Amino acid sequence: MTEKRPEAKPPQVIRDSHGRPAFAVVPWDTWTAMQDALEDARDAALLDRLRADLAAGREELVPMELADSIAVGDSPIKVWRRHRGLTQKDLAAATGLNQAYISELESGAKPNPSIDTLRRLARELGVSLEDLLRPETAAREFAEEQSPLASGRAASPPVTKSKTRPKGRSST
Predict the structure, then answer these.
(1) What is the DSSP letter of 152?
(2) Rounded CA separation 5/88 (Å)
């Protein structure tokens, strides 16, 4: 047995001073149904775009094991390198970096590679720079970007250290 839906009530039209429709008042059920339909349409459009990007090779699906490995603290460089089927030697040759340096980056012995190094690695591994940051680094950088001081929203005077004491104060 199918559920019988009540007939949709026509909207109440509010006209402007020239008699032209200015506003439409709809029943709440109609409004929520419209919002649901709009959200469904947006979701469908995003899914279509994702499918097209996957088919064109602009996006890829990442196995959960890869994301989990990075989330528990494994080196993103190492995880992505292995996911791409590369050895440290392969990655070193492709990026012009030293294999020992790549090993140090992966082990955390060299925790702060230059932007140039990250760009080379990201380009070869086919990922973004952010994908190569450890989660704690990415979270810290995101927090810094969101802070009022980082964005310039909260201006505070610069702090300077003076080598002289202010007038009127004694040293005792």
Answers:
(1) T
(2) 63
- Give one DSSP letter per residue of 87-148, joined into a string: -HHHHHHHHT--HHHHHHHHHTSS----HHHHHHHHHHHT--TGGGS-HHHHHHHHHHHHSH
- For 57-82, write each residue's pLDDT tens digit: 888 888 999 999 998 989 999 999 99
Q: For residue 24, report the phi and psi dihedrals to the nearest 5 degrees.
A: -125, 130
Check if the beta carbon of residue 79 is closer than 8 Å to that of residue 69: yes
How many whole angstroms separate alpha carbon 48 and alpha carbon 138? 29
Widest Cα–Cα separation across the chain: 94
- Determine contact, residues 85/94, Cβ cutoff 8 Å: no
Q: Residues 78-118: pLDDT tens digits?
A: 999 999 999 999 999 999 999 999 999 999 898 889 999 99
Q: What is the DSSP letter of 159?
A: P
Domain 64-146 is classified in which CATH homologous superfamily? lambda repressor-like DNA-binding domains (1.10.260.40)
Considering the entire predicted model, what is its pTM?
Answer: 0.56
